[in-house]
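User: For my dataset I need records formatted as: sequence, then structure tokens, nothing else. Please produce one.
Assistant:
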Amino acid sequence: MKSTRFSFGSAATFLGALLVVVSLSFSLASCKTADDDNPLPQGVEELSSDSPLIGKWKDIYDSYNTYGTYDTQISTSFIETSSYDKHEGQIYIGKIDDYSGYIYYQLSTNITGYDNSNQPYTIECKGKWSAVAYSNLKSTSVNMCDAYNSQSKYDFQNSLEECISLYTIDNGYFGSLSTTEFSKISD
């Protein structure tokens, strides 16, 4: 009798555990992720934490190093450029090859500043999208350039897809890419 009771007890424990595992499997399988609802465009991915783009960068023009010792900072959760300030949110990349591509980000605030007459201005761009092109990526140096076109100046886009479509080298948005070299000063 003792061994029979042990077997029934073991069987009941096993069935209880199996029921919990099956219930969890069904509940997890039915969960949707953000990626299921909003897949990224083909060729675009989240910037990974091991990317050589991550870090603080200083450009070759010391007078342009807006933040004192650096000009641009890139993380998986924000980007900070001298042109467009700091914007928090997921950072995406579209690689052309292992050494060049585009960094895409959504502007988390409006851009404010002072014009040449020392008058304050605000560019209404919160929620819009912008890009940075990069080339010649190495562990300690890279060429980078903000999306800028003298004809449309602050022409930020309403969606990531529009940003990807418009902000390309071929469309004339990264004219100084080949001449703007950055050195990495920290990770």
